[in-house]
Amino acid sequence: MAQMIASTQVKRVLKTRHLSMIALGGSIGTGLFVASGSAIATAGPGGAIVAYIAIGLMVFFLMTSLGEMATYSPVSGSFSEYASRFVDPALGFALGWNYWLNWAITLAVDVLTTAIVMHFWLPNLPGWGISVGFLALIFVINFVSAKSFAETEYWLSLVKVVTVIVFLGVGVLTIVGIMGSDSSVGLKNYTTGAAPFVGGLPATLSVFVVAGFSFQGTELIGITAGESETPETSIPKAIKQVFWRILLFYILSIAIIAAIIPYTSPNLLGSSVNDVATSPFTLVFSRIGMAGAASIMNAVILTSVLSSANSGMYASTRMLWAMAGSGFAPRLFQKTNRRGVPIAALLLTTLVGGMTFLTSIMSPSVYQLLVAASGLTGFLAWLGIAISHLRFRRAFIKQGHSLDKLTYHAKWFPVGPILAMVMSLIVIVGQDIGSLSNFAWRRLLISYMSIPLFIGLFVYYKVKNKTKLIPLDQIDLTDHRDRCS
Asked: Would you place residue 348 in the very low, low, confident or very high pLDDT band (cuts 50, 70, 90)?
């Protein structure tokens, strides 16, 4: 037992290439390969592109805000720790537990999705067996070491990146008529019907939510900062690379899909992992006659799901470990083995993920409620990052520090974090605007369940511990990186 919980330190083993690919891979997944089709069908090519550009810019500002704090004080479970130190411990408590629950449930959703994807090739295998097998695989990868997680994530993400690059090349050649047909497709689909903007501003705003979910996972770079070998140089470099790659991949991919496939195509609106043939990527590859396009994209989608599950296991485990160090969780979860893996936190996360998966089989209604409870958690985390950064920078100046001491400076402060806060609120409110306008209370409760859960956690800790907003001159600006080795 002493070997299993020998220390309370995680190991700084992650390299710059790991951080870049983890953040990039965390945001390129089924949101791009599948959901992008529904975004184009809903708001047209113009509306979809505008929505993804807007959310992409918001994510960039959030990343720079997180980067400024993470290079100054790189810790695992970063935004929970920063909210606790720079705003109010109650906010850090609520953000941490909400984020942990989100990824633990997302882990269950992902392992359930692996069965759906695998049934494309093996329809007769029991779905529960496939899911349990992949859950065990993800557990072993994270059990071995942080480097094992990072290497696995690197190669899974690389598959997605290569797929997008190939898609971009094929798409451009199809548009100009070199591949797929005798005549060029051109940009005629941008003016088909009501295009380029379909449904006006309401439709474009609704796609903000789709785009926001597509970019979920970029904040993982803050979680990995505590285990980076050189956070002062690797984090800024990773942020710069990830922003341009994400914006380039997403915007160009959507632009190509919209050019080749008209927004009126019923296949776009029906895109889902249940039918890989409706993936816009599959449709484009099939158009040029690529043999086995559906099978190839199904494999890519499988890597995306596994990548998400792998990241979810890591993020939730490190968040629980960090909360234990802050007193937000039992001290047991702060213990690590000799390889720096928080074993107790890993076991609990796996257990909760496994139990959530079982509810999908035994009680689908309970499972749906659990998934709904985690739906907006990523956006709440983004909101918390923006608020924490505003407080951090104000406290930094208030306490007489020079900005020259900061290794990395967030762009456009304070415009960046303020814009990120406003857009995060827009996405949160717009999660299910239909139920708000029609007062569909049951649907409203399910769609926005994350909010009362977050408020409940916040109020519970605040009342129990009588916490208050920390005055700027009393904010702790010391470097806490000594918790890692």
From this structure: very high
- 406: tokens are 């900061």
**DSSP string of 259-271, one letter each residue:** HHS-TT-HHHHT-
Instruction: Kindly tell me the burial class for residue 463, based on how many C-beta atoms sit within 10 Å of its own C-beta (0-12, 13-18, 19 or more).
Output: exposed
Spatial CA neighbour of 219 closest among 382, 406, 411, 448: 382
In a domain? residue 68: yes
How many separate domains does the chain show?
Answer: 1
How far, in Å, are 163, 176, 179, 261, 481 from residue 185 at the CA level? 22, 6, 10, 9, 54
Alpha carbon dihedral 250, 253, 256, 257, in 10-degree steps, equals -100
Two tokens, residue 462: 């605040």
Confidence band, pLDDT 50/70/90 cuts, at residue 458 = very high
Q: What is the CATH number of the domain that holds 279?
A: 1.20.1740.10
Query: Which tens digit of pLDDT belongs to each residue from 279-311?
Result: 788 888 887 777 788 888 888 888 988 988 888
* Alpha-carbon distances, residue 339 vs 325, 329, 376, 381, 419 (angstroms): 18, 22, 33, 29, 40
Say if 480 falls within a structural domain.
no
CA nearest to 286, candidates 175, 170, 406 = 170
DSSP 264-333: T-HHHHT-BTTBGGGSHHHHHHHHTT-TTHHHHHHHHHHHHHHHHHHHHHHHHHHHHHHHHHHTSS-GGG
Q: Is residue 481 part of a domain?
A: no
Amino acid at 355: M
Six-digit token pair at 370? 């659990």
User: How far apart, in whole angstroms, are the C-alpha atoms of residue 205 and residue 427?
Assistant: 8
Is a pLDDT exceeding 50 seen at residue 437? Answer: yes
What's the domain range around 446? 16-466
